[in-house]
Amino acid sequence: MFEHVSRxxxxxxxxxxxxxxxxxxxxxxxxxIGGWIADTxxxxxxxxxxxxxxxxxxxxxxxxxxFSNMDVLGEPKVHVVAQELKKxxxxxxxxxxxxxxxxxxxENFLDGVDIVIDAVEYFEFKVRRMIQNESRKRGITxxxxxxxxxxxxxxxxSPESMEFDEYIGFKDSSKSEDEFVMPFERTIPVFxxxxxxxxxxxxxKQIFSRQEPITNLCAPVAxxxxxxxxxxxxxxxxxxxxxxxxxxxxxxxxxxxYSIVNAxxxxxxxxxxxxxxxxxxxx
Length: 283
Fold this sequence. Notes:
Layout (H helix, E strand, L loop, with lengths): L13 H8 L2 E5 L3 H13 L3 E5 L24 H12 L4 E5 L8 H5 L4 E4 L6 H13 L3 E8 L2 E7 L6 H4 L16 H4 L13 H8 L9 H19 L10 E6 L4 E6 L8 H6 L7
Parallel strand pairs: 1-2, 1-4, 2-3, 4-5
Antiparallel strand pairs: 5-6, 6-7, 7-8
Helix pairs in contact: 2-9
């Protein structure tokens, strides 16, 4: 039964492999981060997966997304991912939500789920907030990655952690869900200053205002996904104490640093820091 994951033993025992086989993980978004996480969790032995995404593969996905290639351009990501995951484990139970996660299917998406991977697009705040808050109501732990430059952060929210709304500042905000943008000071608590050598303030302003896409490299996307998948498995197996929000795990491949950071109690930077380093005015 466990021949396809036999090389996990003895670091993962046969009893633990049974736990993973009987576990259900919901993955919201299977592009960059989500695709790599799905691949890793199935190879680790998770037996039940729910995947959601409403996008098709495009050529600019090829630089970082696990299941993208020239042959699948234009095809729905969730269906491609589902097909590829079944090739890894043909006994995998996989459910596809090809309309993404929304108010109509959120209950079905979270039903029977042990953990949730929040890998929706950065600026899709309304959907992310719904996933985070509905997961918390059900006592489900969520895992969220944010990539910046060669660095990636992992944020874990659980019933015991700081609430998502409080962590990202929405709780005290006067803005609506449609207006609110998660502050980079919270989602990128350690700003990679080397990025200023490659990204001028004009481009930074365009990224902040959604006029330009956020740069994503394959290496930090993939290793961030591996970090999240590993922590998710540790949670499923109850192996160790999780690093929960407001703390986050930050890994920077450029500076060879791995750290635990609390961006709420000890903010490390703000947009004002970037303004001071530039002659460009921030509106």
